[in-house]
Amino acid sequence: MRDFVTCFSENAVNVSHSSISCSSYSNNACISPSNVAPSTQNSVSSVYKVILSTLKQILVTVTWCRSHSNQGLAITFNHEDPPPFRLNTNSRFFRKKKGTKILEPFSSDSSKVEILWDLSNAKYESGPEPVQGFHLVIIIDSEIGLVLGDTAEETVLLSKKLNFRSTGLAAAKVSLLSRTEHCSGSTLYSTKAQFCDTGTWHDVMIRCSVEKENEGLFKSPVLCVCIDKKTVIRVKRLQWNFRGNQTLFVDGLLVDLLWDVHDWFFTPSSSSSSSSGYAVFMFRTRSGMDSRLWLEEKNAQKDKDRVEFSLLIYACKTA
Questions:
Q1: What is the enclosing helix (H) or strand (E) of 93?
Q2: Is the four-CA dihedral 121, 122, 126, 131 of positive or negative sign?
Q3: Which terminus of the chain is more exposed, N or C, with fewer CB under 10 A?
Q4: Distance between CA atoms of residues 261 and 315, nearest Å
Q5: CB 265, CB 239: distance < 8 Å
Q6: Nearest CA to 99 among 133, 137, 148, 48?
Q7: 248 has which bridge partners?
Q8: Are 97 and 76 in contact (CB under 8 A)?
Q9: What's the confidence (pLDDT) of residue 185?
Q10: Is 220 within 8 Å of 237 (Cβ atoms)?
């Protein structure tokens, strides 16, 4: 009997914790060119679904951004109520890098939100999102709605402040729905992704390079996608195959990878001369029983408890 991966797609790629199989590229190590600097992240946006003890659901979008002259944080909520919260290098809040803010709702039936943050000792890598030494806590209707960062001591102090232990009130249930990353620079991009709450973190690298074909008679651009330093997708003659999709199996999940690099080769007339436009890469999880990439909304609503995740990458080639 054929296994599930083979039955679903002849070209599916299976990614496990330790290795990558079911692919003609599985034995090829993904080597990053040493003479090409990776692209730089300009902004990162994460969308979280918060379910309170009252079963009320709220979408919270956290965006970190950085440019040559500005650095900031923005938090928005579904339907813009309560109002959005923003920090940037030009505001007194960001210069403090530590504080609290209460967002009063516009209407009586909306949620009251309190935000606590401490970025005074935050450490960053190449992107705008801090990686350690910080915390960001969002309290919604007196429940801990979202906690980001690694300074756990602040969370303990917060629970005592709100007297959670005496009331027995549990923290809200949180799920990460999507992550969007904007980057610019070369055609080499790397990031990390966790495709489900219980899954492991994977190294993801996307690169476009020019390679020789037919014993070096001519050259053509090739797109390579690597997970955990193994090549899982290799698209030749990219200027003709600038749009497409491929199925992956990651940590037991079905993941669709869709790419669109049209603007890398055919720059819109309205774009800047210093930029060749954005390429878009999307990793999206779905159920193995779904036979189509995109379900009609009425069918997608059948399983409301299922949490799907998407990673969207906008890559601008400026070099």
A1: helix 92-96
A2: positive
A3: N
A4: 9
A5: yes
A6: 137
A7: 13, 255
A8: no
A9: 86
A10: yes
